[in-house]
Design a protein that fits this description.
single chain, 3-stranded antiparallel sheet, alpha+beta, Immunoglobulin-like, 8% strand
Length: 785
């Protein structure tokens, strides 16, 4: 006997009337028990009602798996009311993870061949929703037959089912190729729209289909021209635009067919120009058609004038009040800036105005496009605009803006003084947001501009006197004051206003940096070294410098304490060598490969020439004579062997301090990933004081023609190791060798276990999401031994 239960409408009312979730669960559990009892009793007349209630319970999130087999029974029933609920249940309760879905293949096949249109529609909907690869292979022939049925209702659903089949099983392309060309001659909106979607799927997954459908480009051009000129049907027009959905799909298909094919591109050039000029832009539907037209022009072999027209359309989009339209315009111009740079440059003022957008996503895209527009002819004007934006931009954009300005200044600087002024301005405004290599780059730039030493040290001193919170600025200023402090005190720089600085003022400023709570340990080290170097640059008494150095000999920071102890030893035991040891740093050529190569070149240059009649005494030998520890009066004693060319090694030997072991050989870099111009390299470094710690710098570069966006790198190591991922330098790698992304990985390996690294990369490239997971097993042995 069937247990009486609620009707569907009564069940819905009772569930909605429940005051608490506990009451709702009680009602559902009670009704599910009635449904189970009904299924066990096998009442065929009311089975569809019980399943309908169960589907409602499933929609609320409660388990309903016990109704799967009932769906199969209802699908096999000859009654339409049973089939309707059964197919609906199959779409909701079954998927590829359940083997039960394969049991309905024969029922679907029978229903497709019955000729009853409502039943065929139910079967096609179910197949297109949850059909697995096995079901698609078994039923492809039946679906292909329905593509040519006289009923538009069945044909439309058969086309959508064919789209699902191609996505599941691309090798079924040959089954649907003959029918698609005939379906293009249909006048029914739904059939034509579905056919174009099916052709797009075929072309994207089969090169043979792409070649086959390039023959129908004239037909597509004819259909689109009819839509633009005479209209297709008034019932499908939106805001005065004739069937924009069909226009957009045809433009997307033309983009696929014309890509890398000159003949097809030439056949659609005139039509694209007509669409671009005649489409109404006062409504969003017209803007959608125009945007797809621009994308098509960008991807095919279009004429130069047509590409300029596309850029101008995007320029008009930038003036639109809709933020979404402005966003897609900025993204599209960013893609075009490499290939049509001069055309995009015409809209530079509008792009710069977009920097002031309150929407963070818009201002970020405007910033990326503004940086891409910088070249040698507009670098001064664009840098001024970007610096003005840097002062008011939100904190999340400051790092990208500062790094972009520094990179643009490095590539297109008209003069060294302008380059130095630009970097100083960025460090003053957003010093804490710049990349780690900004300090080294600026010190190298100043050291190479010998005629600007006095100007640079005065500017840096003034900037540091006003604000010591920007740590990179303070580090560069301390280094510059230590190197060129004598020029600061002279006060005779012709390129700046006269600045009279006393020795006590300079020393007081450096002491202020040392004592400030805002100073990082590295900044204090710069300031302490600057004080030590000033002991040879200043003409007064060094008593104050000695006191400061002796105080930091008991500092808690080990690095700072070591420096202070060494400097104090230099004062006490080797004061006669202090001037030679603390002389100005030699200029290091930019792009020098490694320290070892520079050292080898220095040693080679220090060797006397055997062919010369009078041996020239190299600078290294003169330094050894000046620092002759034995004070040999004869003057003809043999020179001691050359010292370590690095300044740190020389200091250790000369100060007679405990000699540290020689640094290990550098670990070679390796390339672990490359795809479509995107490359990932790993570089390694071991801190001398922590042998169990390995620092891995992940560098992502992009040599392709499209930007890499939303870049995320994740890493995993075995459980015996500890991994810490630092924040990356950004999430966008510009095209054609733009600014790379770097990320630091800190791996602690106290047991020296063999290192294995698993990386997961996710990013967007050419508008497509990419995800790669791979394991790096070829790491050098030096990374873990």
């Amino acid at each position: 006997m069937v247990v009486p239960s609620l009707k569907l409408q009564d069940l819905i009312e009772e569930i909605r009337g429940a005051k608490t979730q506990a009451q709702e669960r009680e009602v559902i559990q009670k009704e599910c028990a009635h449904i189970r009892a009904s299924f066990r009793d096998g009442d065929p007349l009311h089975r569809h009602r019980q399943l309908a209630k169960l589907l409602y319970v499933h929609m609320l999130g409660y388990p309903a798996h016990f109704g799967q087999m009932e769906c199969l029974k209802l699908i096999a029933s000859p009654r339409f009311i049973d089939k309707r609920v059964g197919y609906l249940g199959a779409m909701l309760l079954l998927d590829e993870r359940h083997d039960a879905h394969l049991l309905i293949t024969n029922s679907i096949k029978n229903d497709l061949s019955q000729g009853i249109q409502p039943v065929q529609g139910l079967a096609l909907c179910t197949l297109s929703t949850m059909g697995s690869a096995e079901m698609c292979r078994d039923l492809a022939v039946e679906v292909e037959k329905l593509l040519l049925q006289p009923s538009p209702y069945v044909r439309k659903k058969a086309i959508l089912t064919a789209v699902h089949m191609i996505r599941k099983v691309p090798e079924l392309s040959s089954v649907f190729l003959p029918s698609c060309a005939r379906l293009l001659h249909e006048h029914h909106h739904g059939i034509l729209l579905g056919t174009i979607t099916l052709i797009m799927e075929l072309c994207e997954r089969s090169p043979a289909a792409l070649r086959h459908f390039r023959k129908v480009v004239p037909k597509l051009v004819q259909i689109l021209q009819t839509l633009v000129t005479t209209g297709y049907s008034s019932e499908h027009s939106i805001s005065g635009v004739s069937d924009p959905f069909l226009q957009v799909q045809i433009l997307r298909l033309l983009r696929i067919l014309g890509r890398n094919h000159e003949e097809s591109s030439e056949a659609m050039n005139d039509l694209l120009a007509q669409v671009a000029t005649n489409t109404d832009t006062s409504r969003n539907a017209g803007n959608a058609v125009l945007f797809e037209t621009v994308l098509t022009i960008m991807d095919i072999h279009s004429a130069a004038g047509l590409r300029v027209l596309a850029v101008n359309i995007l320029g008009r989009f930038l003036l639109n009040s809709d933020k979404n339209i402005r966003y897609v315009a900025l993204m599209s111009l960013l893609r075009l800036v490499q290939s049509d740079h001069s055309a995009v440059q015409r809209h530079r003022p509008t792009v710069v105005e977009c920097l002031q957008e309150t929407d963070a996503s818009l201002s970020r895209r405007a910033l990326e496009l503004s940086l891409a527009l910088v070249n040698s002819s507009n670098v001064r004007a664009m840098t001024m605009e970007l610096q003005a934006f840097l002062g008011s931009c939100p904190p999340e954009l400051r790092a990208d803006c500062a790094s972009g300005i520094l990179l643009a200044a490095e590539r297109f600087a008209p003069t060294k003084r302008w380059h130095i002024d630009t970097i100083l301005h960025v460090l003053t405004m957003a010093g804490s947001y710049v990349r780690d290599d900004a300090v080294a780059n600026l010190t190298q730039l100043i050291a190479g501009a010998q005629d600007l030493h006095a100007y640079s040290v005065r500017c840096l001193y003034s900037a540091m006197a006003e604000d010591i919170s920007q740590q990179p600025l303070v580090q560069v200023a301390a280094w510059c004051i230590g190197e060129y402090g004598d020029l600061l005190l002279e006060g005779n720089c012709e390129e700046s206003e006269p600045l009279q600085v006393e020795e006590e003022e300079v020393l007081a400023l450096l002491e202020k940096v040392l004592q400030s709570h805002m100073s990082l340990p590295a900044t204090r080290a710069y300031a302490l070294t600057a004080l030590m170097k000033l002991s040879t640059r200043l003409h007064g008494d060094n008593k104050r410098i000695r006191q400061v150095v002796s105080i930091y000999g008991s500092c808690q920071d080990v690095e700072l304490q070591q420096r202070a102890v060494e400097y104090n030893t230099l004062f006490q035991k080797y004061d006669h060598m202090r001037t030679a040891i603390l002389e100005k740093m030699p200029l290091v050529e930019r792009g020098g490969s490694q320290v070892g190569e520079v050292a080898e070149e220095s040693i080679a240059a220090a060797k006397p020439s055997e062919a010369a009649p009078v041996p020239t005494e190299p600078q290294a030998s003169k330094l050894l004579d000046l620092l002759n520890l034995l004070d040999d009066p004869s003057g003809d004693a043999q020179h001691p062997p050359p010292l370590d060319p690095s300044p740190r090694g020389a200091s250790v030997h000369l100060l007679d301090l405990p000699c540290a072991p020689p640094p290990p050989a550098p670990i070679p870099n390796i390339k672990v990933f490359e795809r479509e111009g995107v490359q990932l390299n790993l570089s390694f470094n071991r801190p001398p004081g922590t042998p169990a710690l390995l620092l891995i710098t992940v560098t992502a570069t992009n040599s392709s023609g499209g930007d890499v966006t939303h870049f995320i790198c994740q890493a995993a190591v075995p459980k015996s190791l500890q991994l810490q991922l630092q924040a990356p330098s950004g999430d966008t790698v510009p095209a054609r060798g733009g600014l790379p992304i770097t990320q630091l990985l800190r791996i602690l390996n106290p047991n020296k276990a063999p290192l294995r690294l698993k990386l997961r990369l996710t990013y967007n490239h050419f508008g497509q999401p990419v995800q790669e997971i791979f394991e790096v097993n070829n790491l050098p042995v030096e990374t873990w031994q």
